[in-house]
Input
Amino acid sequence: MNFKGRDIISIKDFSKAEINYILECSKKMVPYAKGEKYTNILKDRVLSSLFFEPSTRTRLSFESAMNRLGGRVIGFSDPSGTSQKKGESLADTIRMADSYSDVIVVRHPQEGAARLAAEFADVPVLNAGDGAGRHPTQCLLDLFTILTEKKKIEKNKIALLGDLKYGRTVHSLAYALSLYGVELTFVSPESLKMPKEVINECKELGAEPRSTSSLEKAISDADVLYVTRIQKERFPDAEEYNRVVGIYKIDNDLLKHARKDIIVMHPLPRVTEINPEVDKTPHALYFKQAFNGVPVRMALLSLISGGRL
Amino acid sequence: MRELKIQTIKNGSVIDHITAGNAVKVLHILGIPRTSSSTVSVAMNVKSKFGKKDIVKVENRELDPQEVDKIALIAPKATINIIRDFEVAEKHKVKLPKEISGIVRCSNPTCVSNFNEPVESRFIVIREDPPRIKCYFCEREPEDIAERII
Output
């Protein structure tokens, strides 16, 4: 399978076989991501890390991934110090990064920004999140986490919880999980339901997702509980946000009603939706999930750059 | 004899079977009369076997069927008749191209194509009739395409 020069914009650009291949490569990257082994396969390559929106995990894990592969990173984590402030278009910023580096990682508040970036760059572009749109590398690391913990993705019962309307990770994830024929349950308040077009896409792939507002009901037979934050920054008005914030809370009492081997995932940052007491239980997978961002992004960077271990 | 609401034309193009009420939008999509000095006749809400329809006649200009295909977005059943010396010389049914650029505005206010970037709006056609399209950039499907014509 050849990924050299390919953009990573949307999980929908990849077949199931290609996703499986990326996950296999990610597994091989784990000892390198942990610093137990060393490689220089991307020596002298330069990555542009363009973050027009705040990020902790995505940016740091991309930068860690490039460094662990022997490459170097340039870029910014706050656009206020760039020519965007002077009114420069994203297209022109991308043209510059294209001439300064071998690969571009971009996070931007506008949906479709990464696809636009890919139009103006000759080097490969990786989408690190575009507004409420897509976040393919998060989706891949989520799949990798389920695969490594449950030994397979297929046939798991997976509940996606929280902000299913504005949450970009759950849209990509619902699509990808449908490729694997998992049993999906969408749990959200009425006002934050999964958009109809995402549900239709899942159905077109043969999935039959259920929707409910009852967390207790959904958790009883779930193998994986995927929790998301109600994102204040995506709400058009504060009143709607206040009505739903804090509506679901995961704590040890709730998890008593779940399967013993349920894993709780979260793309982070969390605010109040998971009680810190859960962190110490074997259910808590979210920190390991965050680490998995490094091997998965190492795999993607090496694949699209043509580097081989 | 049936009374003709608009005259037959000697040479030119007739766009027939336009979804009733959409003739003006069809002209807008085709850039008529902006790109042409031809005489243009429009008949709206004309009774036909299948209910009401609109008809557009453009005199002394043969429209390129491929260029007209994009009107399938709002008139998927339209036909283009090329008239020569009062006879129908060619007849085509419109067929949506795989991609549509610069005609429809994305319905997503936070889509990058709605900001100050040097790109035209661009849509991938998912289904032809009734038409379904999705934004190339943000993947949003506009619900009411006719309302989104630029």
User: Anything to note?
Assistant: The longest helix of chain B spans residues 23-30.
